[in-house]
Amino acid sequence: MNFSEKDIQQIEEKGLTLDEVNTQIDFFKKGMSFINLESAATLGKGILSLNTEETKKYVTLFDSKRDDLSIVKFVPASGAATRMFNFLFQFIKTYNPSQESINSYINKHKDRELSLFLVGLEKLPFFEEVVHKTHKKIPNFNDLLYNEKCVEFIKTMLNEDRLNFSSFPKGLLPFHRYKKHVSTAFEEHLFEAALYASGNNQADLLFTISEKHNHKFDEEFKFIEEDVEEKTNTTFNILFSYQKNSTDTIAVTNQNEPFRNDDGSLVFRPSGHGALLENLNEIKADIVFIKNIDNVVVNKFKEEVVYFKKLLGGILLQIQQRTFLYLKRLENKDLKEEELFEMLQFLSDKLNVSIVSEFEKYSIKSQIEYLREKLNKPIRVCGMVKNEGEPGGGPFWVNDENGTVSLQIVESAQIDKKNKHQKEILKNATHFNPVDLVCGIKNYKGEPFDLTNFVDDNTAFITMKTKTGKDLKALELPGLWNGSMAFWNTIFVEVPLITFNPVKTVNDLLKPQHQLI
Prior knowledge:
Blueprint: H1 5-13, H2 18-30, E1 37-40, E2 42-43, E3 46-48, H3 52-65, E4 71-76, H4 86-94, H5 102-109, H6 112-119, H7 127-137, H8 146-158, E5 174-177, E6 182-184, H9 185-196, E7 198-199, E8 202-208, H10 214-232, E9 235-241, E10 249-250, E11 268-269, H11 277-280, E12 287-291, H12 299-330, H13 337-349, H14 364-375, E13 379-386, E14 394-399, E15 405-410, H15 420-427, E16 431-432, E17 436-440, E18 461-467, E19 470-476, E20 489-494
Parallel strand pairs: 2-3, 3-20, 4-8, 4-12, 8-9, 13-20
Antiparallel strand pairs: 1-14, 5-6, 7-8, 10-11, 12-17, 13-16, 13-17, 14-15, 18-19
């Protein structure tokens, strides 16, 4: 691809190289390849199911080790709240109160979301704030007809000259209403972190946010810091990190030529949550918990949620302990055959590693090298919930181009729906990925792994977008918990549905897990 001097300057200012951009364009030309599913991961076949006693044992193990560990809670939090209100934007755009009632509109458009919203209006965490603001804007609000009141209420939520909730980062939107205050998702993560992602009464959290919202998060933390620290008896170290410009990817036209702005400059786009691997890679903690910003609950449900976070942590610690023991043994070349077989069984039974069929034919030296290479990797323990029809990724056994089968979290967009066999495997999936991970990112010598060495670059996404009314193709890097962790050692564990409570639309805030009563 021929780029001008001005193009090259723009590329370098992004922190990218010409080779990297050409590689991205080649990916567009080649097209994304679909994942080859071997089968769905199910209970007893890729997903661990534990009874009450086993669960308690792991929770106890985690609690006994917490104060000896450096722990970080990593929370992707750059998303805006805009999508939460899509159906309300559509309503305001198309509804005319002088021509029909809201009930008539709901029936005509079969708008179940709007109906649910209006029925649960008073239970929303920001109800009183919106009413107060509406009265200030519309002094005769009480005199309006019901249809008009509903319209003004929604306008107060959305309009730029009023509360403008849709422009908020999701983490700072009012989420839960308690007796004396309204909390944000950001605040709930602090309370939760104190209960499991802390040691010696100290909790370290890293939120990846949009740089333009940095001051807002800073202000929120200063506002709640004293109260949260007093209630939890925990000191919080909060860091905010931004998606790096160097992880942006070039956009192209449908003809795979660089897409350009009207002034001729190249268009680059954020490359999805896979870009956050760079942020994760800068963490030097022993273990890292990963959880999305919108997956929180009100206080009365926290104890149960926290219990299963500790379960995942306990499993990781036990797996790490044995992994590190074996890696230290492998430094001693004088190993017996039964010791090597024990390690092989551990890889297969506990780490879900498919063992190469020729292993027994290898020399002892090659067997040791093989075992070391398979064991010396980052480890992730991922909670999985039963599939309740939520969109998104799930746990599968995947066959790569070398014929190696491994456990992966796969997004539906990575699957060829036109292939009947692949579609059938997807249909038979029993579990869903709630983004509930605990990660071991140090090796047996206590050194941090370079996580960029364990990425499957072939799992990048191509998506269709528009800019100024023109179609463009965008490239997303391998997802943070998808291809970015493809070559980690992986354990999937069934956890209850109570651990998964995302807020995708404003109506999700009406669910019991987000309500005090």
